[in-house]
Amino acid sequence: xxxxxxxxxxxxxxxxFIVLIFVRAVWHKLGAFTEFTGFVADYxxxxxxxxxxxxxxxxxxxxxxxxxxxVPGAQAAGLLVAAALLALYAGAMAVNIRRGRTSIECGCxxxxxxxxxxxxxxxxxxxxxxxxxxxxxxxxxxxxxxIAAIACGVSLWIAFLLAxxxxxxxxxxxxxx
Length: 177
Fold this sequence. Notes:
Layout: H1 3-31, H2 33-42, H3 48-70, H4 75-98, H5 117-136, H6 143-176
Helix pairs in contact: 1-2, 1-3, 1-5, 1-6, 2-3, 3-4, 4-5
């Protein structure tokens, strides 16, 4: 395997991983949009009148990140949109943690997770992964390479879901003490 094919494999696997994270996020937000607007309101970064439009913008941006990553030739743009969103989310979390507002739900989707520096670090790492995949450039994979990239991306996503549940369980354990 050449260095460029390894780079393509890593980039494609990371793209699959990031797409799955954002598909889940969009699905969660659209499935419980009113609840999601409550999470956005809890961050207290916008006036009440802006909560719904900002919430709609977030869902639209996440959907755009997913769709761009699925369009041949637009993967880098989709990855950069995803990275920007992840960095924005990390920043919003950090602002609220500094305000002492750690009991609010992150709004990430999935298991309930109050704000923590762990979540900020997680989002920063995910943003860096997305940027790295975008920098590796377009894919040059054969069918076997594409299958391997999809399998790796799905495996990363499953590991991510497990880690997310561990973080949620740890937060719940701390709160119950």
